[in-house]
Amino acid sequence: MLPRDGADGSTPGMEAPYVRAKSLNVGYANEVVVADINFELRHGEAFALIGTNGSGKSTLLKTIVGLLAPKGGKLSVFGMPPGNSHARIAYLGQFHRSGFVLPLRAIDVVRMGRFPRHGLWKRIGRQDDEIVLSAIKTMGIEKLADVPLRSLSGGQQQRTYLAQVLAHQADLLVLDEPTTGLDAGGRELYLRAINEEVCRGASVIIATHNIHDEAALCRQVMLLARKVVSLGAPEQVITPETLLETFGIAVTSGKGVQVFECQRRGDNQGLGPNIPRR
């Protein structure tokens, strides 16, 4: 006899998915934007949502983090309804208001990444400071740490918010168009940073227009066009036919999808990124 599924649909003895969607509908008010979404995201996996503006990517992400209620079907995050695991989730949306309401420096914004672990009023300690400084260094903004956020360029601000996400050290990273405003150097730092997050065991969901770089990070790709066009491994999903249906134009796949992998270093320092040269 097969073992019965757990309350979250997992099989006893197996780790439950971080995110599970079954016949999920997402949308706003009385409008369903995307219907019948089905996928699972497990520990240490990365998942890319690829589509145009208005395709439903942001709507799905907001539903996962609990900002929007599901319009139908089932959705669980860490085995619970969405909105119950804020301390374990780092969310990067497309719009940021904090830096323009308050006179914050870049380092102040990055420190906010530690608040979900401690609360707003608990003083962060030396280890938190080290984590914050490491995130700042990872995104290459050490010289900007004391600069007011409103004085930074758009790309520098995006690096700051990405550093905030890294400082959270969350189990699940939910990123909406994370490379907006980044130059080539910023994109390379971002890709390395997210690859390292996956290598340490975090799971990542990325909404993007980009076909290649995010796909290289991800085990699964979902193409969206106000419906699920295709879902699966990047090399299977990203085809001229599916891209035509997703974007409405013929998009060539270039050299194909390179895969980022985690490999164990010979010096026994644990898992590290193996990023293909460009």
Describe the protein.
The chain is of the alpha/beta class and 278 residues long. The chain contains 10 helices and 11 strands. It has helices at residues 57-64, 98-101, 106-111, 115-118, 126-138, 154-168, 184-199, 213-217, 234-237, 240-247; strands at residues 19-28, 31-41, 46-50, 72-77, 89-92, 172-176, 203-208, 220-224, 228-232, 261-264, 271-274. The strands form 3 sheets. The protein has a 6-stranded mixed β-sheet with strand order 5-6-7-3-8-9, with helices on both faces. Strand 1 and strand 2 (31-41) form a beta hairpin. Helix 5 crosses helix 6 (154-168) and helix 6 packs parallel to helix 7.
Question: How would you summarize this macromolecular structure in one to three sentences?
Answer:
This protein is of the alpha/beta class and 278 residues long. It contains 10 helices and 11 strands.
List keywords for this structure.
278 residues, alpha/beta, 10 helices, disordered C terminus
Give the N-to-C terminal Cα separation.
Answer: 51 Å
Which regions have little confidence, pLDDT < 50, spanning 5+ residues?
Answer: 1-7, 9-13, 263-278
Mean pLDDT: 84
Name the assembly state: single chain
Give the overall form: globular
Instruction: Tell me what portion of residues adopts beta-strand conformation.
Output: 15-25%
Question: What's the number of helices?
Answer: 10
Task: Please estimate the helix content.
Answer: 25-40%
Number of strands: 11
Rg over alpha carbons: 19 Å
Q: For the report, how would you describe the main beta sheet?
A: 6 strands, mixed
- Strands of the largest sheet, in order across it? 5-6-7-3-8-9
